[in-house]
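Batch job 17 of 40 flagged for manual review because the log was empty.
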Amino acid sequence: MYPSLSPENFISSFGKTSGNYLSPEFLEFLRAELLRCGKALQTVASALEHESREVKEQAHLAATAQFFYALGLLYTRGLIIPPEVPGTSSRAEEPSAVTACEVFGEALERFAREQFLGRGTGRELGELSEKARICFRALAPESEQLERVRDERTRVDRKKAVSA
Protein backbone atom coordinates (compact mmCIF):
# COMPACT_ATOMS: atom_id res chain seq x y z
CA MET A 1 0.00 0.00 0.00
CA TYR A 2 1.27 3.49 -0.83
CA PRO A 3 1.51 6.13 1.90
CA SER A 4 -0.93 9.01 1.66
CA LEU A 5 0.36 12.32 0.35
CA SER A 6 0.09 15.55 2.26
CA PRO A 7 0.78 19.19 1.25
CA GLU A 8 4.23 18.88 2.86
CA ASN A 9 5.18 16.38 0.13
CA PHE A 10 4.90 19.16 -2.44
CA ILE A 11 6.74 21.88 -0.54
CA SER A 12 10.33 22.37 -1.59
CA SER A 13 12.91 20.83 0.70
CA PHE A 14 15.61 23.23 -0.50
CA GLY A 15 16.51 24.46 2.98
CA LYS A 16 16.68 20.93 4.40
CA THR A 17 19.77 18.75 4.26
CA SER A 18 18.16 15.95 2.25
CA GLY A 19 18.79 16.64 -1.44
CA ASN A 20 20.45 20.00 -0.74
CA TYR A 21 23.83 20.18 -2.41
CA LEU A 22 24.64 23.69 -1.16
CA SER A 23 25.88 24.07 2.38
CA PRO A 24 24.01 26.41 4.74
CA GLU A 25 27.11 28.62 4.82
CA PHE A 26 27.15 28.91 1.04
CA LEU A 27 23.41 29.63 0.97
CA GLU A 28 23.98 32.42 3.48
CA PHE A 29 26.81 33.78 1.30
CA LEU A 30 24.47 33.79 -1.73
CA ARG A 31 21.79 35.53 0.29
CA ALA A 32 24.22 38.21 1.51
CA GLU A 33 25.52 38.78 -2.01
CA LEU A 34 21.98 39.13 -3.39
CA LEU A 35 21.28 41.73 -0.72
CA ARG A 36 24.49 43.55 -1.70
CA CYS A 37 23.59 43.43 -5.42
CA GLY A 38 20.14 44.79 -4.72
CA LYS A 39 21.57 47.68 -2.71
CA ALA A 40 24.27 48.35 -5.35
CA LEU A 41 21.71 48.49 -8.17
CA GLN A 42 19.61 50.98 -6.22
CA THR A 43 22.66 53.07 -5.33
CA VAL A 44 24.09 53.30 -8.84
CA ALA A 45 20.69 53.85 -10.52
CA SER A 46 20.58 57.61 -10.05
CA ALA A 47 23.96 58.01 -11.77
CA LEU A 48 22.48 56.51 -14.96
CA GLU A 49 20.95 59.95 -15.67
CA HIS A 50 23.95 62.02 -14.56
CA GLU A 51 24.91 65.07 -16.63
CA SER A 52 28.43 63.77 -17.29
CA ARG A 53 28.69 61.26 -20.13
CA GLU A 54 31.62 59.56 -18.39
CA VAL A 55 29.67 59.14 -15.14
CA LYS A 56 26.72 57.72 -17.09
CA GLU A 57 28.98 55.19 -18.81
CA GLN A 58 30.59 54.14 -15.53
CA ALA A 59 27.18 53.81 -13.88
CA HIS A 60 25.90 51.74 -16.80
CA LEU A 61 28.93 49.46 -16.55
CA ALA A 62 28.49 49.08 -12.79
CA ALA A 63 24.74 48.41 -13.07
CA THR A 64 25.29 45.86 -15.83
CA ALA A 65 27.97 44.08 -13.80
CA GLN A 66 25.75 43.95 -10.71
CA PHE A 67 22.80 42.76 -12.80
CA PHE A 68 24.68 39.83 -14.32
CA TYR A 69 26.33 38.97 -11.00
CA ALA A 70 22.85 38.79 -9.44
CA LEU A 71 21.65 36.53 -12.26
CA GLY A 72 24.63 34.25 -11.63
CA LEU A 73 23.81 34.11 -7.92
CA LEU A 74 20.18 33.30 -8.68
CA TYR A 75 21.29 30.62 -11.13
CA THR A 76 23.54 29.08 -8.48
CA ARG A 77 20.49 28.98 -6.24
CA GLY A 78 18.58 27.15 -8.99
CA LEU A 79 16.55 30.08 -10.35
CA ILE A 80 16.80 30.73 -14.06
CA ILE A 81 15.43 33.95 -15.53
CA PRO A 82 14.31 33.29 -19.11
CA PRO A 83 15.12 36.11 -21.55
CA GLU A 84 11.55 36.63 -22.78
CA VAL A 85 8.10 35.47 -21.94
CA PRO A 86 5.19 35.83 -24.38
CA GLY A 87 3.04 38.80 -23.57
CA THR A 88 5.71 40.94 -21.94
CA SER A 89 5.59 44.66 -22.52
CA SER A 90 7.41 46.53 -25.27
CA ARG A 91 10.29 48.94 -24.72
CA ALA A 92 7.98 51.94 -25.20
CA GLU A 93 5.90 50.92 -22.17
CA GLU A 94 8.86 50.23 -19.89
CA PRO A 95 10.39 52.47 -17.23
CA SER A 96 13.71 54.26 -17.48
CA ALA A 97 16.96 52.46 -16.66
CA VAL A 98 17.02 54.31 -13.33
CA THR A 99 13.59 53.04 -12.32
CA ALA A 100 14.22 49.54 -13.69
CA CYS A 101 17.47 49.20 -11.69
CA GLU A 102 15.87 50.54 -8.52
CA VAL A 103 12.85 48.23 -8.82
CA PHE A 104 14.93 45.14 -9.61
CA GLY A 105 17.32 46.02 -6.77
CA GLU A 106 14.39 46.27 -4.35
CA ALA A 107 13.00 42.96 -5.62
CA LEU A 108 16.38 41.27 -5.12
CA GLU A 109 16.63 42.55 -1.57
CA ARG A 110 13.06 41.49 -0.78
CA PHE A 111 13.69 38.05 -2.29
CA ALA A 112 16.93 37.63 -0.32
CA ARG A 113 15.28 38.68 2.95
CA GLU A 114 11.95 36.88 2.66
CA GLN A 115 12.08 34.07 0.15
CA PHE A 116 15.68 32.97 -0.30
CA LEU A 117 15.76 30.10 2.16
CA GLY A 118 12.54 28.66 0.78
CA ARG A 119 11.69 28.37 -2.89
CA GLY A 120 9.12 31.13 -2.77
CA THR A 121 5.79 31.12 -4.50
CA GLY A 122 5.42 31.03 -8.24
CA ARG A 123 3.89 34.51 -8.24
CA GLU A 124 6.82 36.00 -6.31
CA LEU A 125 9.37 34.29 -8.55
CA GLY A 126 7.42 35.43 -11.60
CA GLU A 127 7.54 39.04 -10.39
CA LEU A 128 11.28 38.79 -9.74
CA SER A 129 11.76 37.35 -13.24
CA GLU A 130 9.70 40.10 -14.86
CA LYS A 131 11.60 42.84 -13.02
CA ALA A 132 14.89 41.22 -14.08
CA ARG A 133 13.77 41.17 -17.74
CA ILE A 134 12.69 44.82 -17.58
CA CYS A 135 16.02 45.77 -16.00
CA PHE A 136 17.89 43.84 -18.69
CA ARG A 137 16.01 45.58 -21.49
CA ALA A 138 16.62 48.96 -19.84
CA LEU A 139 20.36 48.28 -19.59
CA ALA A 140 20.67 46.61 -23.01
CA PRO A 141 22.09 48.75 -25.77
CA GLU A 142 19.69 50.24 -28.28
CA SER A 143 19.72 48.79 -31.79
CA GLU A 144 21.73 51.79 -33.03
CA GLN A 145 24.51 51.00 -30.56
CA LEU A 146 24.40 47.34 -31.53
CA GLU A 147 24.83 48.29 -35.20
CA ARG A 148 27.93 50.34 -34.33
CA VAL A 149 29.38 47.39 -32.40
CA ARG A 150 28.72 45.03 -35.32
CA ASP A 151 30.28 47.48 -37.79
CA GLU A 152 33.34 47.87 -35.55
CA ARG A 153 33.69 44.10 -35.17
CA THR A 154 33.43 43.62 -38.95
CA ARG A 155 36.08 46.29 -39.51
CA VAL A 156 38.44 44.66 -37.00
CA ASP A 157 37.85 41.22 -38.53
CA ARG A 158 38.67 42.57 -42.00
CA LYS A 159 41.91 44.12 -40.72
CA LYS A 160 42.86 40.78 -39.15
CA ALA A 161 42.12 38.95 -42.42
CA VAL A 162 44.20 41.44 -44.45
CA SER A 163 47.15 41.30 -42.04
CA ALA A 164 47.12 37.48 -41.84
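Reviewer: the log was empty due to a logging misconfiguration, but the result itself is present. The radius of gyration is 20 Å. Unflagging and moving on to job 18.
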